[in-house]
Amino acid sequence: MYVGESMKIDKRHLLNYSILVPYLILSVIGLIVVYSTTSATLVQYGLNPFASVLNQGLFWIVSLIAILFIYKLKLNFLKNSRTLTMTMMVEIILLLIARFFTKTVNGAHGWIVIGPISFQPAEYLKIIIVWFLAFTFARRQELIETYDYQALTKRKWFPRKWSDLKDWRVYSLVMILLVAAQPDLGNAAIIVLTALIMYSVSGVGYRWFSAILATVTALSAAFLGLIAVVGVKTMEKVPVFGYVAKRFSAFFNPFDDLTDSGHQLAHSYYAMSNGGWFGRGLGNSIEKAGYLPEATTDFVFSIVIEELGLIGAGLILALLFFLILRIMHVGIKAKNPFNSMIALGIGGMMLMQTFVNIGGISGLIPSTGVTFPFLSQGGNSLLVLSVAIGFVLNIDANEKREEIIREAEEELKAKEITQEYDDNVIDLDSFY
After folding, report:
1. Which residue in 204, 193, 194 sits closest to 153, CA to CA?
2. From the CB of residue 90, how many other CB atoms can be counted at a distance below 10 Å?
3. How far apart are CA 394 and CA 406, in angstroms?
4. Cys bridge to 194: 349, 374, 391, 418, which one at CB 3.0-4.6 A?
5. Which residues in the chain show pLDDT less than 50?
6. What is the DSSP string of 15-39?
7. The pLDDT value given to residue 130
8. For the chain, what are the domain ranges?
9. Nearest one of 141, 145, 168 to 338, comparing CA atoms
10. Is 310 helix (H, G, I), strand (E, B) or coil?
11. pTM for the complete prediction?
12. Which residues neighbour 420 within 8 Å (Cβ) at sequence distance 6 or greater?
């Protein structure tokens, strides 16, 4: 009898608490930060100071239910091509609606509002792109092992006929361009970087990761150099780019125009400077009181540094990095290529989002409008991260169960061999 048929392993006993506990702690800290950064402004407008945190809390409850639901599901639903295809079709339709049939918010489209509910399709594409690429690359592992990157490119860098359009690169590019066209260049950048990570962990030679990294770095440097030479005012005339042109102006010198382009970044510096090592205390931020725009979303970590200091913010960042490393550890240990790429992709996505946000608030890279994981106000971002956590927990439990079954089968086989050997041994004492 097959061991797996006789063994029933409850998934509750396989739950990875090294991932779940940091997630819960970061979520609770996020609720505290949301209240701290929003309550004062809400009071000024005569509104309920708990309105934002209650909304965030509602999304968190939904997120916990989503994690529980996903954890109980069998992993086969992720490997179903019909389910993936339908999800991608719905996502593309939502992106089209968000771009062409919605009102602008802060100069950009992207939010779909249905009564009291609003959501941002671009946020959900982060997890969908990981799912899609993991599904595609996992089915080509034998070919990748033999033909390396050619198994993914089919020796064609560009489509030459209509049949070539049925390619993972075309599908990915269409979805990314729909996000960039809103324009939401921040989320588009995160998705592109996540896709590059997925390509790097697909099994292709390590040299291609180095080549991709060098190419991305060179193109970024060349783009920034072009802006510096041509000038921001000239680049403002370029479609789509005009929306974020001011952010590049602030990147070069935020103190050049403190009343306009450099206002956000300069006040981000002021907030971090005010915090020092130990901070001004929770709720005592100066910059959140109307000085720093987007203090609750893009620049929330600046407020965290101001209130909790570099030490407090550093501990939160360390906990987030610990969570990301534990997620990546699941991917590294996984035997199944699909499971491995899902976990590594999710960990990479969270890492890129963190780096891009911190780079933006510190002036290391141009500000992209990317939220900080768990701490920024935004129920959609929290829900996406929670769904991703649910996937990883399910994958980890499944891998542990498969490992237990494998070890049990090996032990049973060893016992059968030993028994067979004992049956064939002649007892010499019986002849005397």
Report:
1. 204
2. 13
3. 18
4. 349
5. 1-2, 5, 431
6. --HHHHHHHHHHHHHHHHHHHHHHH
7. 94
8. 1-72+262-413, 81-230
9. 141
10. helix
11. 0.87
12. none
Q: CA-CA distance, 132 to 393, in Å (whole number)? A: 19
Q: To 5 degrees, how large is the angle CA 356–CA 131–CA 20?
A: 70
Q: Tell me the DSSP string of 32-61.
A: HHHHHHHHHHHHHTTS-TTHHHHHHHHHHH
112 token code pair:
């779909």
DSSP string across 212-278: HHHHHHHHHHHHHHHHHHH-HHHHTTSTTGGGGHHHHHHHH-GGG-TTTTTHHHHHHHHHHHHHTTT
Please list, in sequence order, all residues whose beta carbon lies within 8 angstroms of the beta carbon of residue 369, skipping any fewer than 6 positions away: 184, 185, 186, 244, 294, 298, 360
**Which of 44, 108, 31 lies closest to 378 in space, CA to CA?**
31
Residue 397 carries which side chain, given as an amino acid letter?
A: A
- Determine phi and psi for 74, rounding to 5 degrees: -80, 145
What tokens does 173 get? Answer: 């590019």
Q: How far apart are the first and last CA of the chain?
A: 40
Q: At what angle do helices 121-138 and 81-100 cross, to 10 degrees?
A: 150
pLDDT at res. 1: 45
Query: Which of 202, 82, 189 has the alpha carbon at shortest distance from 136?
Result: 202
Confidence at residue 241, expressed as pLDDT on a 0 to 100 scale: 63
